[in-house]
Amino acid sequence: MTKAKYKRVVLKISGEALQGRKPYGIDYDVMLSIAKEIKEVKALDVEIAIVIGGGNIFRGFQAATSKGMDRSIADYMGMLATVFNGLALQDALERIGVFTRVQTAIEMQALAEPYIRRRAIRHLEKKRVVIFVCGTGNPYFTTDTTAALRATEISADVILKATKVDGVYTKDPVKNKQARRYKEIRYLAVLKKSLKVMDATAVSLCMDNNLPIIVFNINKRGNIKKAVMGNNVGTLVH
Q1: On the chain, which terminus has fewer CB atoms closer than 10 Å, C or N?
Q2: 1: in domain
Q3: What is the CATH number of the domain that holds 230?
Q4: Residue 2 domain-assigned (yes or no)
């Protein structure tokens, strides 16, 4: 069997990646496709934890800035949106035979386990996929920061940041056709240039703990596996 470069990974999936071409909500064909890729990666004897966003359902920051909502309330609503996505992904994974546990930073016993670091690690050791929902459980922190925090806590080898673009660019590639994609870039360069990889808190946490980030396009089939194998895909932040 071909060996993966990374043994334990945190896969960060944005809510927008789950909506496909829909204006909002979940595209279940996209969800199932992602679930199948995760199963393929798991077959390489890779331990997988997933941090999932909720932007396809509700974005707390946008509601606070454009609609005048209280930021804390808006962020808590955004955390609840991640539960929708986490349970949907759990269902998709278990329908194809992947044992899964959902752990939440905000206690809701009827739906998911509370986040307990040692229990999460034990699930991974037992070859279960662990899905982290509700962010850090605190307002003002993004799910990117959650990914950096959880990856550090469980001693992951890498964060796989799955997005709708194929890496980190010098400028917004949608608005500027002259934008150039980085194959790799240093943490400090990301912070100094204010590149939209992850928020500054997440990047700083990864830098402090020497935790690499691979940014890649999740819409291209096979990219998760390529990233885990250490193939040249997307952008490496280190």
Answers
A1: N
A2: no
A3: 3.40.1160.10
A4: no
Q: State the total domains in the chain.
A: 1
Q: Would you call 46 helix, strand, or coil by DSSP?
A: coil
Note the pLDDT tens digit of each residue in 126-160: 999 999 999 999 999 999 999 999 999 999 999 99
Contact at 8 Å (CB) between 121 and 153? no
CA dist list (Å): 173 to 21, 31, 214: 19, 26, 18
204 SS3 class: helix
User: Do you know the residue count of the chain?
Assistant: 238
pLDDT digits (tens, 9 = 90+) for 181-206: 999 999 999 999 988 888 999 999 99
Nearest CA among 232, 213, 224, 231 for reference residue 35: 224
3-state secondary structure of 8: strand
Instruction: Determine contact, residues 36/104, Cβ cutoff 8 Å.
Output: no
**CA dist 21 → 44, 59, 138 (Å):** 30, 18, 30
Joined tokens for residue 106: 């905000």
**At which residue do the structure tokens 């950096």 appear?**
148
